[in-house]
Amino acid sequence: MGAVEAAVGVARQQGLRVDEPVVLRDLTNVLVRLDPAPVIARVPMTLSRLRGRDWFERELDAVAWLARAGAPVAPPATEIDPGPHERDGFLVSFWEAVDHDPGRFDAAEAGRTLRDLHSALASYAGELPAFHRLDEVERLLDLLRPSDLVSREEIDGMRAVRARLADEPLPPLRPIHGDSHFGNILWTPAGPLWTDFENLCAGPVEYDLGCISWRDRRENPEALHAYGAHDEHLRTLMEPYVALFLAPWTITIAERHPTPSGIEEARRRVRRALELLHPRAEA
User: Fold this and answer.
1) 112 — alpha (psi -120 to 50), left (phi > 0) or beta?
2) Which end of the chain is more exposed for a tag (fewer CB within 10 A), N or C?
3) CB neighbour class for 171 (10 Å; exposed up to 12, middle 13-18, buried from 19)
């Protein structure tokens, strides 16, 4: 049984009518729209390699709390138990479907709502992992093998970057999104809603801003300006942490889905992760 069958099976077991499951995405997660119900099933396909049920329970609890607080988030499903549910080796969670149109993208609104999200998260009292997740990075690097995607020298280089970052003093920590790029926003008629909180963590708000700026999009300055006051120097210091966290995960995804664009992005992210050892002269 695959991820889609697991999601549909759990939904029907709870009494949800599912006539036509539609796969919206199959990458880090499998996302399935459970027509005709206004519910999206999500099944993690890569993060679950290293993360247990507790990670996804924390995400659901936190996002439900944020939704009750009026934060700009896409909430867990209310028609059925949002989970997470275990079935045939898969973890399944359920989320409310929203009217998402990428054509509504607005960089300034992304920045403003990220500040609103941070304001709401400031009162969240749940225990969260530190933003750098260096232990998880180490486990990921241990799983990598030299290939066309990454060489032994590059794996060793990322280990060296990890060791260097592990020696850096940590800034003050507070709850943040942990993966707050534009792709993790749903653009609804009522405004943007942040989603995909599986990397929810404790860190400086500048880490979340680094998740935006690291990706080199032309809209980034507008989003950062709209966010408002922050420590610009600390934001730049956060980008190597973002790069190192994303590189091995992107390789893992590219191994599962070896598309030309995915392979190219994995290679690019490895190079970016190694910039701490070989600054921009080689970038």
Assistant:
1) alpha
2) C
3) middle
Position 167 pLDDT exceeds 90: yes
Q: Is the dihedral of CA 110, 175, 214, 148 positive or negative?
A: negative
For 233-260, the pLDDT digits (tens) are: 999 999 999 999 999 999 988 888 888 9
| Structure confidence at residue 257 (pLDDT) | 81
> What pLDDT shows up at residue 282?
40
Q: Is the pTM of this model over 0.85?
A: yes
What is the predicted pLDDT for the residue at 50? 67
Q: State how far the Cα of 50 lies from the Cα of 27, in Å rounded to an integer.
A: 16
CATH number reported for the structural domain that contains residue 162 in this entry:
3.90.1200.10
Which of 96, 128, 145 is where one domain is finished? 96
Identify whether residues 124 and 18 lie together within a single domain: no
pLDDT value at 281 more than 60? no
Cβ neighbors of 49 (< 8 A, separation 6 or more) are 143, 252
| Number of domains composing the chain | 2
Q: Which domain holds residue 242?
A: 102-282
> The CATH number of the domain where 74 resides is what?
3.30.200.20
Report which of 123, 107, 37, 118 is spatially closest to residue 72, judged by C-alpha positions: 118
Residue 182 above 90 pLDDT?
yes
Q: Are residues 185 and 245 in the same domain?
A: yes
- Count the neighbouring beta carbons within 10 Å of the beta carbon of residue 135: 13
